[in-house]
TrEMBL record:
Residues 36-184 form the Thioredoxin domain. It holds the Pfam family Redoxin. InterPro entries: Redoxin, Thioredoxin-like_sf, Thioredoxin_domain, Thioredoxin_ResA/DsbE_sf. PANTHER family: PROTEIN DIPZ, THIOL:DISULFIDE INTERCHANGE PROTEIN DSBE. The keyword Isomerase applies. It comes from the Bacteria. Residues 1-19 form the signal peptide. This is Thiol-disulfide isomerase or thioredoxin. Gene3D superfamilies: Glutaredoxin (3.40.30.10). It comes from Pedobacter soli.
Length: 442
């Protein structure tokens, strides 16, 4: 009987350790272990290797975590090599001594016992810093996993986690609020994996982004093909664009169109010249691209975007001039275009298609440039359309989307307009393949 009893007593620590490991619930996410989170209660566990419970600070004892209930507990995860950790010790000492009846600071270390113990003994001798400390810890580090130190876990009087912070939150005002159980507002620490791209973490503070560029290759399911505008939340000024599931032909075309029209020049996709080796990739491969600049650089958004694309995309785009085939939209002696000299005439603007004939384009209360856009995008047309009508008023016009230039001109003629084939000197955007760095070095 005595032999059985001795065996069970020897086995107890191992059984207790096994029970504790199975008692600690750790939530896992794609970015790693989360552990006990803010708002959750701290489990009743035994903390091993606790020192500082006596005045000498030499003893090592196991302690139930509930022994500290009724006080505000700050778990201070630290290491002897961590300068910010050590820098905070004097403040911790001041707070612990001033609020000893309501606060319990517990230092938590998982370095070799000898190293951490000698370090704290030296600090105690030189600076009078006497803390309750946990050495060679495994339990608390598993309950509150973290990537960086200093790491502080604030636990309220009732045993619930109030906050998980860095050293910047160690302020007396917040300590008093936390001890009173009211009105505390912490900036909680983010558990961001630095090995992953910053934007892949849900914890990354996206609201504070000032400038960034992001480019990925391949279609992303769940994202629509298109573009989104990024505006300053404070002023509404445009500071960026995002393009999703988009090819570089469309992307460069958008940038070129905005840049040239800002100079008062018309520009369209038909003024893009790709001189590279993979036209199918240029027009067909999907990419996702986002570019944002600080608000004070918003006026240079698109020039900077072009520079960014020319640096990091597979292509380089630049503007030049060439004499090229085109269609000139012009007036001639004949019927007049119906002009709308006031937007108050009750005519709705924008393209409209006859409900009985989907091939009929009806443009009401629009600029001539809108008509030019539609003419240029007719399926049969392969060249740019140049506006030489001289019309500045808004127009009302209806024509059929037909299969060739002759039939379109038949519709335009009733408005005194026509499309004339010509050769004109015009701005074009030339796109070449990016020269690989390996070639540049050779």
């Amino acid at each position: 009987m005595k032999l059985k009893l001795c065996f069970l007593l020897l086995l107890c620590p191992f059984l207790w350790g096994y029970a504790q490991d199975n008692k600690i619930s750790v939530t896992s996410t794609a970015s790693g272990k989360v552990g006990i989170v803010i708002g959750q209660p701290v489990l009743e566990v035994v903390i091993q290797n606790v020192s500082g419970l006596d005045s000498a600070g030499r003893n090592f004892k196991p302690v139930l975590f509930s022994a500290f209930k009724g006080k505000l507990v700050i778990l201070d995860f630290w290491a002897s090599y961590c300068v910010p950790c050590i820098t905070s010790f004097p403040k911790m000492k001041m707070l612990q001594e001033k609020y000893q009846n309501d606060l319990q600071v517990i230092l938590v270390n998982n370095e070799p016992v000898g190293r951490a113990k000698v370090f704290l003994q030296k600090r105690r001798k030189e600076y009078g810093e006497a803390f309750i400390s946990v050495f060679a810890d495994t339990v608390l580090n598993k309950m509150f996993p973290h990537r960086t130190i200093p790491h502080y876990v604030w636990i309220g009087r009732e045993g619930r986690v109030l906050a998980i912070t860095g050293e910047e939150e160690l302020e007396e005002e917040k300590l008093l609020q936390a001890m009173a159980g009211e009105g505390y507002r912490f900036v909680n620490k983010k558990n961001i994996d630095p090995a992953l791209p910053l934007f892949s973490s849900a914890d990354f503070p996206a609201d504070s982004l000032v400038r960034y560029s992001l480019l990925t290759k391949g279609r992303v399911s769940g994202l629509a093909s298109g573009t989104q505008f990024r505006k300053s939340k404070s002023s509404g000024v445009l500071v960026g664009r995002a393009f999703t599931n988009t090819d570089f032909f469309s992307l460069y075309g958008t940038v070129g169109r905005v840049l040239k029209r800002a100079e008062g020049q018309r520009f369209s996709d038909k003024q893009i010249r790709y001189l590279g080796a993979d036209s199918l990739g240029f027009t067909g491969d999907n990419y996702n691209y986002e570019f944002v600049v600080p608000e004070w650089l918003s006026a240079r958004l698109y020039p900077m975007m072009l520079d960014d694309l020319n640096t990091y995309s597979p292509y380089v785009g630049s503007f030049g001039a060439e004499v090229a085939d085109c269609l000139v939209l012009e007036r001639f002696d004949g019927p007049e275009v119906r002009l709308i000299r006031s937007v108050d005439e009750g005519v709705l603007g924008g393209p409209n298609y006859d409900s009985g004939n989907k091939n009929k384009l009806s443009l009401k209360n629009v600029s001539v440039e809108v008509l030019v856009d539609h003419l240029e995008n007719f399926a049969w047309n392969r060249v740019p359309v140049i506006n030489e009508t001289g019309i500045s008023d808004r127009i009302w016009i209806a024509i059929r989307e037909t299969a060739d230039l002759k039939q379109v001109n038949a519709g335009l003629r009733q408005y005194g307009l026509r499309l004339r084939p010509a050769k004109k000197k015009m701005e074009v955007m030339v796109i070449r393949d990016q020269i690989k760095q390996t070639k540049l070095m050779n």
